[in-house]
Amino acid sequence: VISVSARPIDTARGRRGAVAVFHDITERKRVETELRGFAGVVAHDLKAPLTLVSAYAELATEALDELAGSVAGDALDRARRGTAKVLHGAGRMQRLINELLDYTAARDATLRLERVSLRALVDDVVITRTDAPEHEPHSRPDVFVGPLPDVHADPVLLRQVIDNLIGNAIKYTPPGQAARIDVTARTGEDGGVRVRIADRGIGIPDGEHAAVFDSFHRASNGTAHPGTGLGLAICRRIVERHGGHIDASPNPGGGTIFSFTLPGAAGAGSEQVTRVRKT
Ligand code: ADP
């Protein structure tokens, strides 16, 4: 496998020329493929023992809660704090493992293309996300969903893209801030669909918008929030496998706009504008 990079040069006496550099990246590709396979196997093999850890930590928590009804004491309090930490850590590991598995699946899973109602998919993600227990009723974001056409896509993989982008829009909008998120789409002349998810959250610093799609990359202002830096790399893979393109840009009103393209499906879907808000 050869990678080629070239740039024009101006030589002395005004003559124009070009320099091309050829790199043999066969070895790098082989190592990347091996690492991806390794990550997939490790994630898969960690899943079962981690499920056991979580299940027993939950059992221990229940038993300690029962004991706390009749016995009091420092030792019991320490044990309860300990099991809470085990459960919290196991939850984080489970999320990381699931992301690593999604990451390998995003490249390797067979694409099953069909007509998908973007509208139904977005509504479902919004309701699941805004119903999440970590959101107090007063800090739930408002998500406005515009008219969305049908697309030609793999519904499982497309759900991951929408879920990651809406999940990020919520995660990177501090509670209490004007937490409005807009999901809109436009069908181009070529029949392709551009989906746009705009938030008014913390934004991405100038010059970092392209890098957030690299695996494990986190923007310099976002590290206070838990995360792995894998979600957007997964989104990019999935969108590119559909022949589309994804990018991020600053929202002029503050926040970030993520935008991606997909092949459209003939005959557009719902035209109505609704507001999905859980209170
Ligand atoms: P994670 O959120 O797990 O860190 P992602 O790959 O989804 O990983 O995102 C990469 C980085 O891009 C995040 O760490 C964050 O810094 C930044 N980012 C993603 N979405 C947003 C957003 N809507 N607003 C601000 N920053 C974002």
Q: Keywords, please?
A:
6-stranded mixed beta sheet, disordered C terminus, 279 residues, alpha+beta, binds adenosine-5'-diphosphate, two-stranded antiparallel ribbon
Outline the structure in words.
By secondary structure, the protein is of the alpha+beta class. It is built from five helices and ten strands; from the N terminus they run ββααβαββαββαβββ. It has a six-stranded mixed sheet with strand order 8-9-7-6-4-10. It has a two-stranded antiparallel ribbon with strand order 1-2. The protein has a two-stranded antiparallel ribbon with strand order 3-5. Strand 8 and strand 9 form a beta hairpin. Bound molecules: adenosine-5'-diphosphate.
Topology:
Elements: E1 2-10, E2 16-24, H1 26-70, H2 74-108, E3 114-117, H3 118-130, E4 142-145, E5 150-153, H4 155-171, E6 180-187, E7 193-198, H5 231-241, E8 246-250, E9 256-262, E10 274-276
Parallel strand pairs: 4-6
Antiparallel strand pairs: 1-2, 3-5, 4-10, 6-7, 7-9, 8-9
Bound molecules: adenosine-5'-diphosphate.
What's a concise summary of this model?
Keywords: ATP-binding, Kinase, Membrane, Nucleotide-binding, Phosphoprotein, Transferase, Transmembrane, Transmembrane helix, Two-component regulatory system. The protein is 43% helix and 21% strand.
